[in-house]
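Case study 2.
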Amino acid sequence: MSSPELICVGAIAGAFGVQGEVRLKSFCARPEDIARYAPLYSEDRARTFSVKITRPITGGFGARLGGIATKEQADALKGATLWAEKSKLPSLPDDEYYHADLIGLEVVDTGGRRLGEVRAVHNHGAGDIIEVFVPGAKSALLLPFTHAIVPTVDLAARRIVADPPEEVE
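Prediction:
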């Protein structure tokens, strides 16, 4: 049996209090839904956690994770990412994608010329930006993930068609 596909849904920002609660940052569209996708896994799949949100806090939630009972255990998880089985996440409309689905897709321009491959998707608050690794280039190509710049995403063909601004080609 193969392992289920996992999607990163949150991260632990450290301990919250002295009784084993953690500061939980959710990457979910509805942040409180993170607990619905439990059990959550560590990135290496070595650990699984049940999740109980105890209260909203600035930048996330106070939460109890299964198996974490002390401040020291909670502190040891600082910076850890939490992953959920993709099958537990909601289906998305046709024009929305999980970031993990875009990583590794080939990127071509509107004329079919290969530009590179998606290496990451970033969001610094103003919308998603895809990072495209371009072989032989000194730096990655960063493209706003908008319909104007990325008119086509074909997950079945594992390809994105992009229309980058002339100044970045």
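The chain has a mean pLDDT of 90.
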